Amino acid sequence: MAAGKFQVMTLTDTAADRVRELVENSDKNAIGLRVGIKKGGCAGMEYTMDLVEEAKSGDDVVEDKGAKLFIDPSAVLFLLGTEMDFEVTKFRSGFVFKNPNEVSACGCGESVSLQAADLSALAR
Questions:
Q1: CB atoms within 10 A of CB 42
Q2: Which of 29, 30, 98, 120 is least buried, going by the fewest C-beta atoms within 10 A?
Q3: How many beta carbons lie within 10 A of that of residue 107, not counting itself?
Q4: What is the pTM of this model?
């Protein structure tokens, strides 16, 4: 990570383990996981995740705990400060995003409403 550059996202140990497991067990020549957002769902936006075989121009690369994430450039401002976790409960297992830019979420937790991060607050 370059000096003075703010890391877009962090991963919990459990999330990093799961990302590494997905990459290692991929049928592709995956090098990491791309995280983005798209319009959709009842709250307005959904997180997207895809295995990555090569970085795209403009991707913000996060390396944390041995796992590599590629952040879609259009999602960076919505994901600043987010912690990505992986949890297994009695009813579901999956990645969970603790995002300070989240305004609201639907009841199922699959869809969120996000606002862009306040960059002036990060500069302090």
A1: 13
A2: 120
A3: 8
A4: 0.77
Instruction: Output the six-digit token pair for 20.
Output: 């590494």
Residue 83 has, within 13 A of its CA and on its CB side, a CA count of 6
Distances (CA, A) of 94 to 39, 89, 91, 110: 20, 9, 10, 10
CB atoms within 10 A of CB 14: 16
**What are the pLDDT digits (tens) for 39-65?**
876 667 888 999 999 999 999 999 999
Determine how β-strand 32-39 pairs with β-strand 67-71: parallel
Residue type, 20: R
Per-residue tokens: 12: 């919990």
Residue written as tokens 């969120």? 112
